[in-house]
Design brief:
11% strand
Length: 463
Amino acid sequence: MSGGFSSLNTALTALRYNRVAMDVAGSNIANVTTDGYARRRVEGAAVAGPTQPALWSRYDGAGDGVQVTGVTRMTDELLNVRARREHGNQAYLDVRQASLENIENGLGEPGDSGVNAALADLRNAWHELSLSPGSQSARAQVLSSARSVVDAIGVQARNVESEAGDQRVHVLNDVSEVNTVASGLADTNRAIAAGNLGGSDVGVLLDKRDQLTQRLAELTGAKATVRSDGGADVTINGVPLVTGSRAGSLTVASGITPDGESDGTALTFAVVDASGATTVPSGMSGEIGGLTDLLTTTLPAYLTGLAAVAKDLADTVNTQHQAGYDAAGTAGTAMFAYDPTDVLGTLSVAISDPDLVAASSVPGGGLDVGNANALATGPGVEGDYQRLVTGLGTEVVESRRRAANQQVLTSQVDGAREQLSGVDLDEEMVNMISAQRAYESASRVMTTVDSMLDTLINRTGVR
């Protein structure tokens, strides 16, 4: 458009554009501390002349102004994908590290109350009995030390089982949160599609979409794919959890009862939707993946190793004890008793009378202490137990190292996203001042054109 009044319209477009620019800068500043907020940028385009050729005239206008073509969220989907993946890996390693550290703290090793100290006290008790074969208190001390070993092993087993129970409850809580987040994402997808169809600004909904998909990745290692309508589809190990406005439910298929107890089977998961239940393949990442690894591999392996140590201890001591003779010259009996199907839960000291302690190696040996010496100096389970504890300690150190290394990578990805999507107050202030000055300049253009038109209309030809 050309003519005197076209300049007023050009200035008006500049006023409108820079007003939007100031509003966007102000919104960015207002949301500088809002979690998940991605900063916005105003997109503008020059207003062009007519695109259709005219038969009898030629467009002679120039500089028809500017128009707002949209407000863009400053995000990069590639960075979002990487962030979801790295946060899923980080959650897996963090939950594993925290649980292993709890177990390590509960072992009491090295210390005066651990299994290793109790085994040493039992050897010392046999040694003291070999020095004082006629002492009733020395015999009683042997039984007391044996009970201490049983107690120490039982306490350690209960600590590990208690940790497993806590983690089973943790799994149930995480599954519940997954379903809540998935339902929220499906609702957000529906709102995004409706907003895009109606031409509304869906930036806030897109921020929420990214937050929800990242939380699902942290919980399960889920992968998200952005849809053409702006929503996101989510899969867990290839099994769809959220598709558009429809969300399935993640369930514990086996391994944990609804009240958090173990049902004695392997821990598995399934996604239930309108088509039925689909088993999720093993190998999930995220918090649930880390908990699954602990409950199916790490904790059972440690309990199995501890049970083997307890069984070997009982068998070794029982064999040697039965080869000796008690205070009455009678052949010794088993000192420890246990149920082979549940060693840790049933291990106990089988005798309570100090006179039944078989210190002698010969019938009616009187003050003979050959069997007590054999039990004090013979082979034991200390080496096996130390290897078990050392193996756990190595696993704890390794989990810390891996979590720390992953944290470096996760922080790098978060930093890259923050550089692109985060709000910088200095930058936004510069943008706001630039828009303010441009607005003032457009206002000045309008004032100048108004003055020019006033001269042309009201003063031309006036004497």
